[in-house]
Amino acid sequence: MIVSDSIYGKHIVEGVLEELIVSKPLQRLKGIHQGGASYLVNEKWDATRFDHSIGVMLLIKSLGGSLEEQIAGLLHDVSHTAFSHVIDFVLDCKDEDYHEKIYEHVIMESEIPSILKRYGYECEDIFQSKWELLEQPAPELCADRVDYTLRDMYQYGHITLESVHDFLHHVTIINGRMYLDNIESAEWFVETYYSEVIDFFMDPINIYGYDILAKTLKLALANNLISLDDLLGTDEEVMSLLSSTEDHEVQNLIKRIHGNVKLKEDQLDYDIHLKNKVRLIDPSVIQGTHLVRASNLSEKVQDMGVKAHKRASKGMYLKVISD
């Protein structure tokens, strides 16, 4: 199989990775949008969990990660429900980790264990191991965090492919973890990351879409119009279920999920207040024989971190002028 990725180019994929890619759990991710409700309010915000999963796998490969860690990267998002992190607002998961809570269950109920077993792998070895390229606690870099940032910001026109490749050229691996070899690359990535998790995630129209869709799903679940199991379908499958109900309140909410809405920020007179998980980045940079946090080397990084924390902690207060 030849995999063609918008960031990492063309790669030959075979064996266990190829079988996993064509499996139902991975193919389902083509119908799960990375930005949750985003594509419903802006059709250009259409990156998928499938794109991201392939990207994480290829990034780990390019950084010298083992085949097992590439498998883990490919599978890391298979348990995301329809509309991705919108479910966390529906179920009040403050850490935005519902997909992690159901990860093992989703894997074990699929054909993934049998695929892995044919190639001599056990599921437990894949999802219980600590993969340090794939995941690191914030504020450090990891393949998951780096890929979704670069992917969204490139696909939505905020950064160039040249700048992406230049940044990746300055990523270096020490003891299986991602670090940067100069402060300029750290400053660039910190700015890009906050363009993603602050400017994009907290874009008023994005916040609006999340809020209305979360209310729709919460009402539909409460009235037994859909089930949590239904949310293991694709975005469009769940939207079709919602659209087919005869519940007038659900139908009225669905009609409000679009991009032709006028909003204004108003902390005193607001209709919507939504807070995402606070996501901060402060990658370590190699300085001689030491690793030093970027914020200790750059006032720019310090300042961006303070501003991002303040905005994320406050959340977004929106007044709906018309919808």
What keyword list fits this structure?
globular; 323 residues; single chain; 49% helix; three-stranded antiparallel sheet; mainly alpha
Secondary structural class: mainly alpha
Mean pLDDT: 97
Shape: globular
Given the structure, what is the number of helices? 17
- Order of strands, main sheet, comes to 5-9-6
**Rg:** 20 Å
Low-confidence stretches: none
Give the H and E element order: EEHHHHHHHHHHHHEEHHHHEEEEHE
Instruction: Quote the beta fraction.
Output: 5-15%
Largest β-sheet summary? 3 strands, antiparallel
What is the count of β-strands?
A: 9
Secondary structure layout plus pairing:
Blueprint: E1 2-5, E2 9-12, H1 15-21, H2 24-28, H3 38-41, H4 49-62, H5 67-75, H6 86-90, H7 98-101, H8 103-108, H9 112-118, H10 123-127, H11 143-155, H12 161-169, E3 171-174, E4 177-180, H13 183-200, H14 204-222, H15 235-244, H16 248-255, E5 262-265, E6 272-274, E7 284-287, E8 290-293, H17 299-314, E9 316-322
Helix pairs in contact: 1-5, 4-5, 4-11, 11-13, 13-17, 14-16
